[in-house]
Design a protein that fits this description.
Number of helices: 13
Oligomer: single chain
Shape: globular
Helix content: 40-55%
Number of domains: 2
Number of strands: 8
Strand order of the largest sheet: 1-2-3-4-5-6-7-8
CATH architecture of the largest domain: Alpha-Beta Barrel
CATH topology of the largest domain: TIM Barrel
Distance between the termini: 35 Å
Radius of gyration: 19 Å
CATH superfamily of the largest domain: Aldolase class I
Order of helices and strands: EHHEHEHEHEHEHEHEHHHHH
């Protein structure tokens, strides 16, 4: 990590940017069924709170997904975003996620000059990286900022990860994300991986981001660990809203960051008005089943189904997960 990326606990690094993923990761909780009032209020809150980026959702292909099964933020049509933000006359940048194999990027991602979107984020598994690079290069050529999220890294062997990072370093991507998809990593592992990502990325003038899940109640700790090592794009969601155990809490992150541009009070006001009812209606956040999937480095779907079935036989679940592994 370069000297310019170091900071003390009472200073701040101006290179750090915060990404609100509430609509995208949180949309996995409620099939993206957010009201326009909620989305508009979150957009205005992020502006007032000094958040740098707001992820509106996925650019999913309507050839793959039935529109009737999801809210509009599964697809993020241009007119839907503009209905909320107009021409986005603010410092807040707008992002969307393109999932490899689930998006028609050449058709559905417009040239940047025709869109209010600023950033295209590509989500990929390690074996899909050539397809991810195709999306990245298309978005870059269209004028967008770009990031790539390599998912399920806790399941990837070292050689494949090194080769994947090397390929991405040669692409036009701006930021490479370290993603703890299963909430399986501990801070020491995050430290080593962030160093690895930074070593590859910085040689090509790229930055590193962190997207953490809270299965072991470590999403915030792991985000801070990556930040300390030099990661500069930090993902969080309001009240940690996200699939399964959820994500790093925006409230925790803004409470930690010392940059005076960030305003925690605005986020708390939004929590009071909108998130208490949302949390009562939808089930997400740390629970023993998610802890077990995190400890055993397993996809959270098993725990999600366990909770939906209102099961409490945790020991049996642990054995089932061990059998899967």
């Amino acid at each position: 990590m370069s000297e310019g990326k170091k900071a003390t606990l009472i200073s701040y690094r101006p290179d750090i940017k915060v990404m609100d993923c509430t609509l995208r990761d949180g949309g996995l909780v409620n099939n993206f069924a957010f009201s326009d009032e909620f989305v508009r209020a979150l957009y205005e809150t992020n502006i007032a709170a000094g958040v740098d980026y707001m992820e509106f959702g996925y650019k999913a292909s309507k050839d793959v997904f039935n529109e009737a099964d999801f809210g509009k933020w599964k697809f993020c049509d241009e007119e839907a975003i503009r209905a909320i933000v107009g021409d986005n006359d603010s410092d807040l940048k707008i992002s969307v996620m393109a999932d490899v194999g689930r998006t028609n990027h050449k058709r559905d991602i417009l040239p940047r000059e025709d869109s209010v979107i600023d950033m295209v984020r590509t989500a990929t598994y390690i074996h899909q990286i050539p397809s991810a690079i195709d999306i990245i290069e298309d978005a870059h050529a269209k004028g967008y900022e770009t990031t790539v999220n390599i998912m399920a890294v806790s399941k990837v062997n070292t050689e494949d990860l090194d080769n994947g990072l090397a390929l991405l370093a040669e692409s036009s991507v701006d930021t490479i994300y370290l993603v703890d998809s299963f909430g399986a990593f501990y801070p020491e592992q995050i430290r080593r991986l962030t160093d690895k990502y930074l070593h590859v990325a910085s040689e090509k003038g790229k930055s590193v981001g962190i997207h953490a899940h809270n299965n072991q109640q470590l999403a915030f700790a792991n985000t801070i660990e990556a930040l300390v090592q030099g990661a500069s794009l930090l993902d969080a969601t309001v009240c940690g809203m996200g699939r399964g155990a959820g994500n790093c809490f925006m409230e925790s992150l803004l409470g930690f960051l010392k940059n005076p541009k960030y305003n925690l009070t605005e986020i708390m006001r939004f929590v009071e008005k909108y998130m208490l009812d949302m949390k009562a209606k939808y089930d997400w956040g740390y629970d023993i089943p998610y802890l077990l999937t995190g400890v055993l480095n397993s996809h959270p779907s098993t725990a999600i189904n366990f909770i939906k079935e209102k099961r409490t036989d945790y020991v049996k679940l642990q054995q089932e997960l061990m059998d899967i592994e």
